[in-house]
Each structure stands twice: as C-alpha cells, then as structure tokens.
Amino acid sequence: MSKLTILKYGDPILRKKSIEIKDITQDIKKLAFDMLETMYAAPGVGLAAPQIGVNIRLLVVDINPPDKKNPLIMLNPVIIKAENKIDMEEGCLSFPGFYEAVKRFEYVDAEYATLDGKRKTILANGFLSKAIQHEIDHLDAKLFIDYLADWKRKAVEKEIKRKKKVGQW
Ligand code: CO
C-alpha cells in the first residue's frame, strides 16, 4: 500500500463529476486500499477518489479511524432513502483546518458495490450518515462549502487565498 497526495480546494479535479466504475480491476482494488491508508494517515473519516486525483465513483469511510477496524469501501454508491435534515459540524481533508455546520440527513440508506462486485445496502445514521453524504457529494463535484451561506463561503475562500499567498495551501 502507499500513501497518496490529497488534493486541496482549488484543484479543478475536485470540480469534475466522477464516472461510474464498470470493471473492478486490480488497479481499482489497489487504489481503494491506498485511499484507506491515506485516510488513516491524514487522519480523516472519509476520502473520495477525486480527492486523490481520480474521477471515479469510489470512496472510503471509517468513522473511528484510530481503530482501523471498520473500513467501508463503496463503489458506485447511491443514496436510496434519506430522512430528517439536521445541522452537523463537518470538515474535509481537502480543506484542512476548516469546520462548518452543514445541513445533512440524519438517516440515509445507501446502496453500493463492494470490491468483490457484490451489491450491498447500508443503513447509516448520525456521523456515518453525514460522512457518506459528504463523500458521495465529492463524486458529484460538490463540496461542503457549497452548502454555506454566501458570506460564509466567501470568508472561507478569502482565508484560503490568504493561505495560498503565504504558501500554506
Ligand atoms: Co471532503
């Protein structure tokens, strides 16, 4: 396994819609495990393929990263049921240091394929539900700052611009 570089906000790949996975190749399997390693090293609770520069519908999640016990690898994930919007604080590995409240569904059912090509459904709530929604958004080129009020998003962008200028982004 190897650790990959996580793209930060501003990279155009994060704004490209990712494509459906048709064949689960060895390359995709390796990529999934490299993504897990990268997520655990960050550390973070979720990572989507576009964040490491590959626009395919693949994501990894583990809401308890220190344990490394419950890695979830999802191919072509789709939310099939969603209930009860609530405000939840979240961050993103492509926005290091930024945390904002975002309205997400407290409960989601998501369908996805495993690395063996089996179709599975997960019933998620709370933190896991939020993480899955956040990562699926990445596959659709949507970022968590898109949910913020205009003034708030502009403040985040301004701060990132400042960080870029001083070589901290
Ligand atoms: Co993210």
Question: What does the model show?
Answer:
- By secondary structure, the chain is α+β, with helices and mostly antiparallel strands.
- It has a single domain, classed as Peptide deformylase (Peptide Deformylase), CATH 3.90.45.
- 27% of the residues lie in helices and 28% in strands.
- It is built from 3 helices and 5 strands.
- The protein has a 5-stranded antiparallel β-sheet.
- Strand 4 and strand 5 form a beta hairpin.
- The radius of gyration is 15 Å and the shape is globular.
- 30% of the residues are buried.
- Bound molecules: cobalt (II) ion.
- Cobalt (II) ion (CO) binds next to helix 2.
How many DSSP-defined strands?
5
Domains, number: 1
Bound molecules: cobalt (II) ion
Overall residue-averaged pLDDT value: 97
Radius of gyration using CA atoms only:
15 Å
CATH superfamily: Peptide deformylase
Spatial strand order of the main sheet: 1-2-3-4-5
Annotated CATH topology: Peptide Deformylase
Sequence of secondary-structure elements? HEEEEEHH
Q: Name the poorly predicted regions.
A: none
CA-based shape? globular
Q: Please estimate the helix content.
A: 25-40%
In short:
The chain is α+β, with helices and mostly antiparallel strands. It has three helices and five strands, in the order H-E-E-E-E-E-H-H.
